[in-house]
Recover the amino acids of this structure.
């Protein structure tokens, strides 16, 4: 990769990396706070908030790691990034199965599938498709590196 292009990429990803790290820490703090509220006995919806916050923490943490990898290597199409994108897709799709709470009459968990959960699931599918595009870019980059 061109050295000046790599430097431009590193500069552009610097602010993104810092922002995603700060948001990641914020999501973890919100998740822990919601968990404490739940443990205090203030309702099961706070457990849902804690779980959703933890998913956001994982997603932003993986995004931060992806951006750090790009800054370190200067190559956005690496095997490590592809694996992290696939994990992001799986975590988002698994977030659909977080119970929406307890039923009123008994203590059974209720999982609802509404438009929000469908959109969350398809966001995971889209990230999975993007990881396959990155996989194709990785093979093209390897071919290009062999020629150069």
């Amino acid at each position: 990769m061109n050295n000046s292009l790599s430097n431009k990429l590193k500069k552009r990803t610097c602010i993104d990396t810092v922002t995603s790290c700060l948001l990641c820490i914020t999501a973890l703090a919100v998740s822990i706070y919601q968990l404490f509220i739940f443990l205090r006995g203030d309702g099961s919806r706070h457990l849902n908030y804690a779980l959703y916050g933890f998913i956001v923490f994982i997603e932003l943490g993986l995004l931060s790691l992806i951006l750090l990898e790009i800054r370190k290597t200067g190559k956005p199409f690496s095997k490590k990034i592809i694996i992290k994108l696939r994990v992001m897709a799986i975590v988002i799709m698994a977030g659909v199965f977080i119970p929406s709470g307890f039923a009123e009459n008994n203590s059974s968990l209720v999982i609802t599938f509404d438009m929000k959960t469908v959109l969350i699931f398809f966001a995971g599918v889209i990230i999975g498709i993007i990881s396959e595009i990155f996989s194709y870019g990785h093979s093209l980059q390897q071919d290009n590196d062999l020629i150069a």
User: Anything to note?
Assistant: The longest strand covers residues 101-102. The longest helix spans residues 3-39. The chain has one domain: 3-147.
